[in-house]
Amino acid sequence: MKAVAINYYNKKVRHQAIIHNDVEDIGQKIGANRMYRCRCCGHEWVSSINSPQIMDENVEKHIAEYYPNRIDCTEIFK
Question: pTM for this structure?
């Protein structure tokens, strides 16, 4: 599973799509929200409107068309 986050506030990556390439559902919940972790960079988040969003299969297949200005999560979260 893949996820995408658009960072509007960080000057280093402003308006770039950050792609998490290997996302897993941790299996825990906080309230009604699921927790996810990227296996590539180790970043963990709770599903919410401001968190990275899980991509649909169609978006994953055509990622270059949807996010031409993208960077890999390992470049940001080291």
Answer: 0.81
SS (HEC) of the chain: CCEEEECCCCHHHCCCEEEECCEEEEEEEECCEEEEEECCCCCEEECCCCCCEECCHHHHHCHHHHCCCEEEHHHCCC
Per the structure, the complete domain to which residue 49 belongs is given by 3-75
Task: Name the domain count of the chain.
Answer: 1
Question: Whose CA is closest to 43, among 77, 5, 76, 70?
Answer: 77
pLDDT digits 0-9 by tens, 23-53: 999 988 888 899 999 999 999 999 998 899 9
Chain position carrying tokens 């270059």 = 64
